[in-house]
Amino acid sequence: METNEDRLKAYIPMVDFIAGIMGPDCEVVLHDTANLENSIMAIRNNRISGRQVGGPLTDLGLKILKEGTYEKEDYLLNYPSKTRDGKPLRSSTFFIKDSDGRLLGMLCININLTAAFSAKNFIESYITGTWTEASGMDLPAPAPRPHHSPEHFSSSIEELVNTIIEKTINGLNLPPERLSPEEKMDIVRQLNEKGVFLLKGAVSEVAKHLRVSENTIYRYLSRKD
Predict the structure, then answer these.
(1) For the whole model, what pTM was predicted?
(2) For residue 196, what is the DSSP state?
(3) DSSP single-letter state for residue 130
């Protein structure tokens, strides 16, 4: 029987094709959404994000799966994302589906805007005669499109879960041991909405961060479902 991975292998030449056309500042990634923890099947120009074959899906990818965005859309265009070291990217994702509309994978394109921002800064300074020390990296990334927060890339499940958890609890400005049960339950609800618990081992990682037992996390999830 043909597997999800078998079907997606036909798209690997497309990864090479797009990367060859767009050049070294364009990272192209093929994800297998049946294997979230090791979803990256093929990647070109990976020096941009530092990821490898076998790496996990992104935080935005999990949210897309959780919300079923692919059921209503065939692709997402030109949304902002950034690498772990802060490089601004313009990203797009094509949803690979079977004849029944079931999601098989995602073909993602991430364009490094560092050089473009540097050129923009130079041209504006050259035209106005106002020279600054600012580099392209100091300029803001494109404004987020509606319904999509900036995407972040991770090289492992632990890093991915940690990134999402930190983004979720940063606004509370409290260490985990000072969070009330209600606050911890709300954090679990938010993480569930972001698709974190689609990942194997996520319950254990979240429990460690919130300093509660795995049974407590399952109890919070059952209360919020």
Answers:
(1) 0.79
(2) G
(3) -
